[in-house]
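Subgroup meeting minutes
Present: P.N., E.W., G.H.
Scribe: E.W.

1. P.N. recapped why we're keeping a running log of single-chain structure predictions: easier to compare across weeks, and new members can see raw inputs and outputs side by side.
2. G.H. added today's entry (208 aa).
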Amino acid sequence: MLAPVIEMKETHASERLHPDRTSIAVVYSVGLGLMAVLVGFVFHRQSTLKFIAETLVSKNEALAESALYDIFRAEVEYHRRSLNRSGTGMYWTADLAGLYTSGVLGSLSLARADVKPREPLPYEVEPYCGYYFVAMNKGPDGEDYQQVVDAASGKVHHASQFGFCAYPALYGVTGRHTFLLTDEEILMYVDYGGLPVMKCPPPRVAHE
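Output recorded in log:
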């Protein structure tokens, strides 16, 4: 009876410790693919967030412009009523709260965005669509907007002029431009670093 023949094959240590080059290439390719997907996702996410932020800024700025025109219409109505009531037409130039309490400005939310109300109010100041509002102090000729037209009221009127400013509550996030609107119904805007402008016209002004 013949003894079975057993074949033995030696395996070098280098063959046991290292996978073949094909496997390495596959793993490497998969890794590169995953990295590319990750980079693409991060870039897309950043682009999306930037687009959302810019859209928010544009939307808030458009609403701030619209709010200033609401204030303009309120001033026109205030002037008309004062003319009918006393025979002397005047604009309310002190703050937004006075326009609201007199019934010519219909938005309480807008009135609450006034950072310098003439008298303490029973509510906190809150931005209106990302913007604060304030009555300006001086017109283009350097004349004060707040004057005594009605002796009983003090320096809260002007016979022919007024000006209001809207500026971002958080510069670069809720808005970028500062907007102004006067009795001439000319909207002005300037990138003023998110600060209010109290005199018209502001520096580096642009008209619309």
